Amino acid sequence: MSTSPSSESPIEVIERLREHNQGRRVVSVDQLSGRGHILLDGKLAMQILNDPELLRPPILRRMVGEGLPWTSGKEWQDARKNIRPGMTTRSFDDCLPEISQSIDDLLDQMGDAASKGESLALVPLIAATMLRISSRAIFGIDVGVNSDRAMTLMNMASTSNKLAGIGVFDTAGRISPELMHELRSGREAVDEISKNILDLARTEAFHPSRAMKCMLEWQKHDDTVTDRRIIEHTSSLLLASVETTTSMISNTFQFLAEHPEWLPRIRSEFTTISGWPPEAIREVDKLTTVSACCRESIRLRPPIWLVARTAPAPLVIDGDVQVAEGDRIYACLYLIHRNPEVWKQPDAFRPQRFTDEGQREGLDYLPFGLGRHYCLGAPLALTEGAMIIGRTCSKFLMSFIDEADDAPKQGFLMGPSLTVRFIPNPVDT
């Protein structure tokens, strides 16, 4: 199969692939150089993504940096080993009051807009809150609420994924001067945010904790851990935490607007936690309905929906698929999460599939990866989502002003663009 030129959107390419390859586990496609192999089966994807011999695409490392999501082999193992202790459930528990305060500040902005009858662009609002929460929870540094900084991260994530998408969805594509300029300027801006976090972490006024503390301790014992390396890991963690969580929360709000029957359950359930702020993440775990809504949202629209590996040597996958050196292998989460052999009504929004009522339907579920590559920030992302959505739905009704564009962008990211009017909930819990 040959991928289509740029006149066809990524989602159209994937839906066409879905239509013509029912029942297949791997589909091979022509690319700009070599071949690409798209995995449609969840179990096969788990096997490939956790294979230590396969590499992240080198082009991302060269163009975007050497942060944790883009490194491979021993370098990745060392980084994950040294950063992971600062991203545990216990470390996130310690900053729940700070997370709650950030959410309260977000709701104050919503309330101010509601009192004036004004609408708000939801994505920049949430992205700014995610930047503040991530900098506090992951690095122990409060960078404040800054929509411009947050959207810089969002745009950088989009640009880097345009780069990764070239050759998959655009057989005529190339790395244009415009894309290179976007990439350079975006990387410089994001690295400046990360350098500021590192500088603040070293002053007496700030006491670094969590992942930043781990990286500074790592630096003391490893001469290869330069400030530049810490900055690149910081940038990659910020990009991952801000963009993907913002997309998850925004998409969930849109799904709830389309399926308002879930809102009374969310509001009722929110009253079961011990108070505000919650005392621990285990309290947030009681919010099973909103958590199920978040999980279902990222099943249907995984923020990163195509995950790539590069073959360093020839190999065979799925018994008879020949993979040449340099070929890319892609796990297509968008289609894996919509496999009718695994999921009932695969294209429908059915949060009950993630509750006891649905008996945890579907095991081929990979929005946060699996095994050795399971996302370190997944507990924080789901906690943020449950707290923000639960708190917002308890305080406000929402009216969406425009239609969301839910088609995947050129590359690997999927998220809506929403303008919202907030209305105080007459039954404020």
Task: Please explain how this structure is put together.
With 429 residues, this protein is an alpha+beta fold. The protein has one domain: Cytochrome p450 (Orthogonal Bundle), CATH 1.10.630. Helices cover 51% and strands 9% of the residues. The chain contains 16 helices and nine strands. The chain has helices spanning 10-20, 42-49, 58-64, 73-83, 89-94, 96-116, 122-139, 147-165, 177-201, 210-221, 227-258, 263-270, 281-284, 288-300, 333-336, 378-395; strands at 26-30, 35-39, 119-121, 306-310, 315-317, 321-323, 328-332, 396-400, 419-424. The strands form three sheets. It has a four-stranded mixed sheet. Strand 1 (26-30) and strand 2 (35-39) form a beta hairpin. The radius of gyration is 21 Å and the shape is globular. Residues 2-6 have low confidence and may be disordered.
The name of the CATH superfamily reads Cytochrome P450
Question: Treating each run of at least 4 consecutive H or I residues as one helix, how many helices?
Answer: 16
Structural class: alpha+beta
| pLDDT averaged residue by residue | 83
Question: What is the helical fraction, as a range of percent?
Answer: 40-55%
Q: Major sheet, described briefly?
A: 4 strands, mixed
As a percent range, the share of strand residues is 5-15%
The ordered string of helix (H) and strand (E) elements is HEEHHHHHEHHHHHHHHEEEEHHEE
Shape: globular
CATH topology: Cytochrome p450
